[in-house]
Amino acid sequence: MDYGLWTMDYRLYTSKSKIMITEQSLWEALETVMDPEIPTISMVDMGIITGIIMSTDQSKAFVEMTPTFSGCPAIKAMEQMVHDRLIEIGVKEVEVRTTFNKPWNSNLITERGRQHLKKHGLAPPPKHHGEITQELLENIECPFCGSKNVDMKTPFGPTLCRSLHYCNNCLQAFEQFKPVV
Ligand SMILES: [Zn+2]
Hints:
Elements: H1 4-15, H2 23-30, E1 49-54, E2 60-65, H3 75-88, E3 93-98, H4 111-119, E4 122-123, H5 134-138, E5 150-154, E6 162-167, E7 173-177
Parallel strand pairs: 2-3, 4-7
Antiparallel strand pairs: 1-2, 5-6, 6-7
This protein binds zinc ion.
The site of zinc ion has 8 residues, from loops.
């Protein structure tokens, strides 16, 4: 992946020195760290980054994250990516902790994240109320034209968390990110 532009931006930003590193700027920096499973959406928009705390002397950042699946083999890599990104913008010490105390669920995907998924032809998971219902599974909207006149081709797409559909309106096949409660 090429984050050349972003890196350059941040280098300009940090080279002005004495600039305050706020928790807000840490969130913004992590908005450029993509989910390794779906490289079109950031870990922030995916709802994986659950908390960021900056020490009062601004020397240390503490980040908490909850990956989408506990068996996610990319966890170590994700921790490293988060760590490296914050070091890059000038934080001296970064601690990243992965926790599953509160499991990830698909409602945590931000509105911007949902738009990003759509832009890449991936239907975002419908918002749920804590349980998977038949209605929820049938509530699928084509990411290209917004039509709900869609058929499911297979409940299993290229990965377990996606299903394959066909839009009867714009005649395109698309994947949906399945809801997770
Ligand atoms: Zn369509």
